[in-house]
Specification:
- This protein has 197 residues and is α+β, with helices and mostly antiparallel strands.
- Helix content is 40%, strand content 15%.
- It has a 4-stranded antiparallel sheet, sandwiched between helices.
- The longest helix has 25 residues.
- The radius of gyration is 18 Å and the shape is globular.
Length: 197
């Protein structure tokens, strides 16, 4: 039987977690990045399609390749972050369905030759996996700075030249400098955004 997470875990993952733009000098170990992906891949996707792809930029050389494609306001915080993840999705995801969804051998055919359905499915489920990625990173003690504000076409040409993987968003990772955080932005009440019928 599953049990609710304790208050401390919920605080870390949601209530006190913040979007970070300033970082301490503490490095992020490769083993932690592997663990993030190992956790994020366990979240549900339709037909277990798992289209998300994660590219971690740690070296100066890798970050320099990204820099020209960043919006001006995202340059300094991204270059300072210990790691920047490109959260992307693979339009060829359906080719792996025979292995990932073996109880439905016909699943590949649901998508083959249907580019609009492929795009919609890959983007939706890749975005879900991007959210799992943030939750996993926070659960492992990292702070996150997810963002848009970059040129997708340029990033795709630079890092995914084969053309089947498309960038969705960027997520800076590390151990945030909490002293630099502004006050948290307000959130709507339950009644403003939800209803129980």
């Amino acid at each position: 039987m599953t049990r609710p997470l304790d208050t401390a875990a919920l605080e870390q993952i949601f209530r006190t977690a913040r979007t970070h733009s300033a970082w301490t000098d503490r490095a992020v170990e490769d083993s932690v990045l592997r663990e993030i992906v190992d956790l994020a891949k366990m979240g549900p996707t339709s037909a277990n399609c798992l289209p998300a792809r994660f590219l971690f930029l740690k070296s100066k050389a890798a970050k320099d390749r990204l820099k020209p494609h960043l919006s001006e306001g995202n340059v300094d915080k991204t270059m300072a972050a210990p790691v920047t993840a490109i959260v992307a999705y693979d339009l060829d995801f359906y080719e792996t369905l025979p292995e990932l969804f073996p109880h439905k051998p016909e699943a590949r055919g649901w998508f083959a030759g249907k580019p609009k359905l492929i795009e919609k499915t890959a983007f939706r489920n890749g975005s879900l996996q991007g959210a799992y990625f943030i939750v996993a990173a926070r659960a492992l003690g990292l702070d996150c700075g997810p963002m848009s504000g970059f040129g997708n076409a340029g990033v795709d040409a630079e890092f995914f030249p084969e053309g089947t993987v498309k960038s969705n968003f960027l997520c800076n990772l590390g151990y945030g400098d909490r002293a630099s955080l502004p006050p948290r932005g307000p959130r709507p009440s339950f009644e403003e955004i939800a209803e129980i019928l």
